[in-house]
Amino acid sequence: MQKWGNKHIAFSFPKSLRIVDLPLNGKLTGYTFKTPIFCLLLLFLVQNLSAQNNTLDFYVSKALSNSPLIKDYNNQIRTIGIDSEMIRASYKPQVNGTSNNYYAPVIKGWGYDNAITNGANISALVGVSKAIVSQKNLQTQFEALRLTAQGIKNTSQISEQDIRRTVTAQYILTYGDWQQLTFIQEVYDLLQKEDIILKKLAQGNIYKQTDYLTFLVTLQQQKLALKQADIQYHSDYATLAYLCGINDTSTIGLQEPILPVYQFPEAENSIFFKQYVIDSLKNINSRQVIDFSYRPKVNVFGDGGYNSSLAYTPYKNFGASIGISMTLPIYDGKQRKMKYSKIDIAEQTRKSYSSFFNHQYKQQLDLLSAQLTSTEDLIIEINNQIKYSEGLVRAHLQLLTTGEVRIADLVIALNNYMTAKNLLAQNRTNRWQIINQINYWSR
């Protein structure tokens, strides 16, 4: 029985390899259980308590919800919505109040020329101005913001995929440690029980003391392997919690990851390719923005209020004015052509990256598919090897009590069995990692 954090977890070796059954009575966190039914009920309750926080989905959802990068992208999209409203507001009538007041005295003939200064000027005006812009011009500006928002959203989705892949890879690694730790614990428990039997047989001269010492060396090696596996699991589990932003010092067992294999979409439907589409639309939009910047600009303005030099009937100097201004670009040193050239270069770069992605995407698909097939075929062969190794160990254990098998042969059989199980665990982990890579590119 092994303790993880504040929970106790009982390990059991496969029944086919047992010689001595465990007693039904056992102590767990200070309580004594008299019936196996009660033990099963308590185990069920403990599993339910941790069922919500030891799955792959739990850690992925925690990592996504705690990610400041995803929150940053969401806030950027919200900011673009505000920018859109600001553009609308900038083309509404702009109202400003202004007041200019000055006095230029002439003392004994000394002072500014009244013909220029009028001696004084007092104004208090309310001005209104409005830029005249076409609906197509507005739509072009809004389209630029919309494409920027799409680019940020797509980048956010790619970041989500990165987080999913990273957390899933760490979860798979940690679960592999957990499986390794569980298996080593089971073997260690088995060897401890067999130690009791072999010690009695050695005392009865059925086995030599040297044979028994050989077995003890194997038992001690398994104990060291158990401690090493325990350290590795705690380290990788802490890394998993760190990646997810979880402040948890306890350690629990993980559930087997459920990873269905998703199909690869066509390259042009992938979120990784979508950015190239958005960049192409941005280049088109940039040309339209340049075109509108070289069209005539019209601005209507007016003001009203009080404006007087105080020289003649100042009480009548209340009034209003209205006007219109127009700007027509004529020549700017061919800057428009230069701006088009920059967009053309950006488009050539985009096409180069897009073509390279399409080529790599297909290569990645073929490579991962081949790796998955090879790994699954190898797992089948390893499972067959485990059946033979398990049968050999079982046969050696049955002959152990009668002294008809050498301890060295039993140790060799156990080592072969453990090697095959370890190889199976490694390839199962490799298979999940390959599926994780496939699912990363499948969105």
UniProtKB/TrEMBL annotation:
Record keywords, A-Z: Cell outer membrane, Membrane, Transmembrane, Transmembrane beta strand
GO cellular component annotations of the record: cell outer membrane; efflux pump complex
Keyword Glycoprotein found: no
Location(s), subcellular: Cell outer membrane
InterPro entries: TolC-like
Keyword Transmembrane set for record: yes
Example GO molecular function: porin activity
Full protein name: TolC family protein
Organism the protein comes from: Chitinophaga silvatica
